[in-house]
Amino acid sequence: MKQLVIAERACLIAHIASMAFGLAGLLVVIPHPELVMSLPPFGQTLFQWGMAGGGVVYIIFGAAAVALYAYRTLGLGATLTFLLPAACLSLSSELLGTSTGFPFGHYHYLSGLGYKIAGLVPFTIPLSWFYLGLVCYVIARAGLGAGQSESNWARQIGAIALGALLLTAWDFVLDPAMSQTSVPFWEFEEVGAFFGMPYRNLAGWMGTGALFMSVAAFCWRKTALQFDRAQLSLPLMVYVVNFAFGAIITVTSLDSRFWFPTALAVFLGVVPALALCWMAKPAASEVTVAIPSLDLPAAIEAEIPVPSVGALRK
Question: What is the pLDDT of residues 225-244, one digit of tens each?
């Protein structure tokens, strides 16, 4: 178990570091190419490799960190029953979307996110759906107490709906950052009414997330998988860091209009995520149990009957 925790933390640190490297490259170095030109040839080559593969690296490390976390806290079976539906259903939605425009609108992927499955969808995209989808669902499930064995269907549906909302709120900053800045990773083929995004893109995110979260909820229905606050530190950190990555790019690279979707994402995503983590049951170390003082002799005399002499003779 200790080795798992070490590997999980190493992947999380690498995930965050690769995003920080990407932010520095996108916001500082690319707008000032003279910084790259001042580097020695080895440094220039390293920077080019980093920018070309940075999107792939941060997604892989994020997926690895969350997969290790899920295996450690949920077990292999529960991890696979989330990972496989999330990856397969999201890939199906993405392939359908890039081919027909349903359910996200007409768009296509550019370079920078790795090998494209069927020449349409980078292999890293289903991984990003998995790791952000899992942390969103775990946070919602823990906050509503839907992981308890006695939880009712309303809590289960509420966890799915809130998990899908947290995931969609992330897209409010992700899509502008990845499609409308100077270094896009995908682009829409239609001008959307919601800050360049079509409204059906948001509906597609909500529907796809709710679909694979529903499959996971069905598969987990007979297992009590309840998280306490201490166990939500990694999911919350992954969610906030990924939100910050998109938000920083959006508000620094685009005009002031994009402060509105960023603020909306905070209101619908970050604030509920923090509230749900606070609502989760406290860790055992946070609970103080008051033990009343007892008059032991009196308690023993009151609770334990003393047999009569006649009863002993019998």
Answer: 778 899 999 999 999 999 99
Task: Report the Cα–Cα distance between both ends of the chain, in Å, rounded.
Answer: 57
C-alpha triplet 170, 176, 179: angle, nearest 5°: 120
Judge contact between 121 and 208, C-beta under 8 A. no
Single pTM value for the model: 0.87
Task: Report if residue 312 sits inside a domain.
Answer: no
Q: How far is CA 150 from the centre of its chain?
A: 25
Q: Is residue 303 part of a domain?
A: no
Q: Is residue 232 part of a domain?
A: yes
The Cα-based distances of 283 to 2, 66, 111, 233, 289 in angstroms read 19, 20, 44, 12, 13
CB atoms within 10 A of CB 36: 15
The span from the CA of 207 to the CA of 175, in Å, is: 17
What domain count does the chain have? Answer: 1
For residues 186 and 203, give the distance between their C-alpha atoms in angstroms, rounded to a whole number.
18
